[in-house]
Amino acid sequence: MTKTTDLLSAIPHRPPFLFIDEVVEVDSSQIVARKFVDPESDFFRGHYPDRPVMPGVLICESCFQAGAMLIAHRLGGGSMSDGLPVLTRIGDARFKSMVQPGETLEVCVSLDDELDRAFYMTGRVRVGSRRVLRVSFCCMLADTEGEAA
Predict the structure, then answer these.
(1) Which of 26, 114, 120, 124 is within CB 3.0–4.6 Å of 31 for a Cys-Cys bond?
(2) Residues assigned a catalytic role
(3) CA distance 87 to 69
(4) Does some domain include residue 35?
(5) Residue 138: inside a domain, yes or no?
(6) Torsion of CA 40, 43, 48, 50, to 10 degrees
(7) Number of domains in the chain
(8) What is the pLDDT of residues 76-97, one digit of tens each?
């Protein structure tokens, strides 16, 4: 299992915008990660405060960050000198159920295709046996100046 300190060395995201707590398993084509949805998270104060629900875009972000971890793993540990993983495409996001405070996301991202410095992936999120999200997306390695390399 990968701990938060290892995550911080592999991807550019930082708290409070870190939506992966641990990597459960990873190989060259798939990653499984978890995120505990802290009831004290700031976004719950304003996103349906009488019936708090995790925003769908943040559930997607968990997939995108797991995808960045998968890219880092494929590149042998994820030095930022290889490029900054940036989201370039989102497609076919399908939300199946809501996520409530205190639940734990299980995030599974698989690599569908790799073309030069572009990584096409599919993310699936569950809470227990309940399906939450399926989303297709692409990340590309950009140079540190912010342009695609």
Answers:
(1) 26
(2) 47
(3) 13
(4) yes
(5) yes
(6) 20
(7) 1
(8) 875 566 788 999 999 999 999 9
What's the CA gap between 10 and 5, in Å, rounded? 9
Residue (of 143, 146, 137) closest to 117 by Cα position: 143
pTM of the model: 0.90
- The pLDDT tens digits for 10-68 are 888 888 899 999 999 999 999 999 999 999 999 999 999 999 999 999 999 999 999 99
The answer as to whether 126 is a domain residue is: yes
CA 145 – CA 20 distance, rounded (Å): 25
Report the C-alpha gap between 2 and 90 in whole angstroms.
26
- Residue 52: which residues within 8 A CB-CB, separation 6 or more? 39, 44, 100, 101
Question: Residue 128 sits in which domain range?
Answer: 4-142
Q: Give the CATH number, domain containing residue 82.
A: 3.10.129.10
